[in-house]
Specification:
heterotrimer; A mainly alpha (206); B alpha/beta (402); C alpha+beta (66); B: 402 residues; alpha/beta; 3 domains; five-stranded mixed β-sheet; four-stranded parallel β-sheet; 9 strands; C: 66 residues; alpha+beta; Alpha-Beta Plaits; two-stranded antiparallel ribbon; 4 strands; 24% strand
Chain lengths: 206, 402, 66
């Protein structure tokens, strides 16, 4: 395979992977917020989150593989898992390596979800919020420059989407009172709603 | 020291001369070295914490779990008394604490427990600490203050609190008898159960055949609250003054209402109470005076119970506030929104068995009994009238928030 | 006897289970699951296992107490 094909393949899978990872994060936070995609059943949101995540991981195999095979850049097999040992742009590539390490953890724990204590799975899964920025910074520093065209807008769009999704999830977490406060809040909300004639909403227990 | 000290006559739980260790020994004699398992089984002792579970079965299951897990079990004397209408546990801990400590020592010894707790109202702990100082139990009892919350005495919530976690009920898989405090098999017994066990160990066969009742009445308009030791099977009418009462709350806030006329003839045992939809529960018998509005009293209690939900389970968190708000409306004279009763029934049907504890189940039973017993009042309210002439509340409801 | 159970504390009413196993689970008016009573029919056990695996909070479990 010629160097230029490898380079294009590496760039293409990298960009697509970032887009899919962004979509995975957005879908994941949507599940967390009990969100729906109009026209789709609830299980579709979760199903898409899993499948898009898996797809992005698969694409990463090609992305990492082409980088190793391409003799133009000094990135060896060890760089797949060991950060900052590459010859080519070690720091930038290293960030990508860290992202791959985290992704592998998230992936494995998710596949083995039913055999792990829930708290452990959750703790690892939350590192996705670290994983994405690592992948993002890797993307904009390890590759050649973004130029001023569609690629820049795409990458910016991913950043906006991931940031918005993360903030939305954080807001949901903040707006859920701890168990001890929920009953009193529900009582107040119910009597307020009855007094004003508005429908009583659903009170979430988590 | 003799192996068995039989008292010359049955001594009620609260009949002792005084709470000190010396007075306790003088009244009851030393604690015999006995194995409580068989004694409790023969006596047929049932738990006095509200559920009425056979104590022998509980002891056995913790012993089994301890053997299986090979971890030393924990024993807990539950004096939390989250029930605002009840005062029996507090009274017992003030008047006869050493009977409770004796019972705790017995079960600790028989199970090979290495840790023992007594959980109670913080106000009682200084005196209890002083009483403990007079004892030389093999397993030292750790005193634990409980917050005044309705669910603070729920077994799994109590075990969580003893572990330093929030006092919220946990799912029953696994139950606390297998994994409780510190992940160890845990025996939780009400303080009255333990006190009765201490009497049974001394040869008092009748100790299992009576119960502490918290009586709440009004006599000539004056409130009367006391705790009495009553033989099981006694007629409710012989325990309470019912001539000025319209209904009796049997059990506590997790109990049910029964019309006064019917209640008078009910006996304090499972066989007599069950057909009336009642149970001994926490041993509260409250005679609602005729000049009160039963719906308003119930609405206040249910508002309290809804606020005491742990807020962990969706059905309870959603159902109880709605039911409480509906009862509030039904408790006022004047027409209520149409379909409100139907809504209450529908919500009530969605709660039993769908929570981590039985709080919603009990609340729903209380509500259903109130709508049945006070159906005349419901009709009066619909017509814009209310029977209640006295604004002063009868049932005690603590002020929120916790 | 294989039964479906819900851990009511873990369950936050996502509602996937009712979509994936309507023969065994419906949702109440607040979005929380109502499980059909009794034993799970044998032909539904395999699906039920997958549905339990799909629960976002792992509140739905299959219990074997036969």
């Amino acid at each position: 395979m010629t160097g230029i094909v490898l380079w294009y393949l590496n760039r293409a899978t990298g960009i697509t992977s970032l887009v899919l990872m962004t979509l995975t994060v957005v879908l994941g936070t949507l599940v967390r917020r009990h969100g729906r995609i109009p026209g789709l059943p609830r299980f579709a949101v979760q199903g898409l989150h899993r499948n898009v995540g898996l797809l992005s991981a698969l694409l990463l195999i090609t992305h990492v593989g082409t980088a190793i095979v391409d003799s133009y850049v000094d990135i060896g097999v060890s760089s797949t898992f060991v950060p900052f040992v590459a010859g080519y742009r070690p720091f930038a590539v290293g960030l990508g390596t860290l992202a791959v390490d985290l992704l592998l953890l998230v992936l494995v724990t998710s596949l083995l979800r039913n055999h792990l204590p829930l708290r452990r799975w959750k703790a690892v899964h939350l590192t996705s919020y670290l994983l994405w920025p690592l992948a993002f910074v890797h993307g904009i520093t390890a590759g050649t420059d973004l130029g001023g065209g569609w690629l820049l807008w795409l990458v910016l769009g991913c950043a906006v989407a991931a940031t918005w999704a993360s903030l939305a999830a954080l807001a949901t977490r903040r707006n859920t009172p701890p168990p001890g406060e929920r009953a009193a809040a529900a009582l107040t909300a119910t009597s307020d709603a009855l007094a004003t004639g508005t429908p009583v909403g659903v009170f979430r227990n988590g | 020291m003799t192996a068995m000290t039989a008292p010359s006559r049955t001594r009620g739980l609260l009949d002792g001369p005084g709470p000190s260790f010396g007075e306790h020994l003088a009244a009851h004699g030393p604690l015999p070295v006995v194995d409580p398992h068989t004694l409790v089984e023969e006596a047929g002792l049932l738990g006095r914490g509200g559920a009425g579970f056979p104590t022998a079965a509980k002891l056995r299951s913790v012993a089994t779990a301890a053997a299986a897990s090979r971890r030393a079990p924990v024993v807990v004397a539950n004096g939390s008394e989250g029930e605002p209408a009840a005062a029996k546990d507090a009274t017992l801990l003030v008047l006869a604490p050493h009977l409770v400590f004796d019972g705790l020592a017995l079960v600790a010894g028989s199970l090979g427990a290495t840790t023992a707790y007594l959980a109670a109202d913080p106000a009682l702990l200084p005196a209890l600490s002083a009483h403990l100082a007079d004892r030389r139990d093999p397993v030292g009892v750790r005193l634990h203050p409980v917050a005044q919350a309705f669910l603070s005495g729920e077994e799994s919530a109590l075990c969580a609190a003893l572990d330093g976690r929030p006092a919220l009920p946990r799912t029953k898989f696994p139950p606390v008898r297998e994994r409780g405090v510190d992940g160890r098999p845990t025996l939780v017994l009400n303080v009255e159960t333990l006190a009765r066990l201490a009497l049974i160990a001394r040869g008092d066969d009748l100790a299992a055949a009576s119960m502490l009742v918290t009586r709440r009445m009004e006599i000539g308009g004056t409130p009367w609250v006391d705790v009495v030791d009553v033989p099981l099977g006694t007629r409710v009418g012989d325990v309470l003054r019912l001539d000025e009462a319209q209904a009796v709350l049997i059990g506590g806030y997790a109990g049910t209402w029964v019309e006064a006329g019917r209640a008078a003839h009910l006996r304090l045992d499972r066989e007599s109470l069950a057909p009336a939809g009642a149970a001994l529960g926490a041993g509260v018998l409250a005679a609602l005076p005729s000049d009160r509005c039963g719906l308003a009293e119930t609405a206040r209690v249910v508002g309290y119970l809804a606020g005491e939900s742990a807020g962990q389970c969706g059905p309870c968190l959603n159902g109880l506030p709605r039911i409480a708000a509906a009862l509030d409306l039904l408790a006022r004279p004047g027409p209520a929104p149409s379909g409100l009763l139907r809504d209450v029934q529908r919500w009530s049907g969605l709660l039993p068995g769908r929570g981590a504890c039985s709080h919603p189940d009990a609340t729903v039973r209380l509500v259903a009994s109130s709508l049945r017993v006070f159906s005349d009042e419901l009709a009066r309210h619909r017509a814009g009238r209310c029977h209640g002439r006295y604004g002063h509340p009868f049932l005690p409801v603590p002020r929120s928030p916790r | 006897m294989t039964r479906l159970t819900v851990d009511p504390i873990a369950c936050t009413g996502h509602g996937l289970c009712a979509e994936l196993l309507p023969e065994g689970i419906t949702l109440d008016e607040w979005g929380y699951p109502l499980l059909a009573r009794g034993e799970l029919p044998r032909n539904l056990v395999r699906t039920a296992r997958k549905v339990a695996a799909a629960c976002p909070t792992r509140a739905l479990r299959l219990r074997d107490d036969g």
